[in-house]
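May I ask for an example protein's residues together with how it folds?

___
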Amino acid sequence: MSQDQILIVRYPNRRLYNTNASEYLNLAGVESLVKEGKNIKIIDKKTKEDLTKQYLLQIITKFENKESDVLTVNLLNEIIKNYNSTAQKFMPDLLSSSFDFFKKQQNEFIKNLNNKYMNPLINETSSKTIEEWHSKQIDYMNNFFNLTPKKTNEDDFPDNQTSINIKDEIEILKKQISKIKDQLDKK
């Protein structure tokens, strides 16, 4: 465990204990640590099982049920469809890259928004920049989450082959990764 990581232990009574701060936490406390940018790890006291993902998913579920609709049904369907395929191997890197790209773009946007020369209320050029940024974000996310190939007519496949074999699926994924890398390199 790294020194900057906060170790949280879940006891058999389901209580969470922050070993760094010597205090008990609830789910909202874990959420606060994550929002503060802290690196957390949650383990079961008895089995030593890593429960971090389970609790992070619980926090996301709370948001989705109460506060927002970030994870669309289409996105969740795509994740499930690609979970047991070769795409599953690339998914963590793709998601990580997309969030890194999004954070970079968001920081650049905020930096320019706070710049008096780029304020959209004052400068027409910045309005165009915002529109362009928004358009690129939409295009990027639409292309990124389109992991399955578009349906085509049976006539488009030689010998009436209607399914894509694993090699073709890998090639499609390689091309998508290459496109994402190119887009990231341009930024």
Summary: The chain has two domains: 5-66, 73-186.
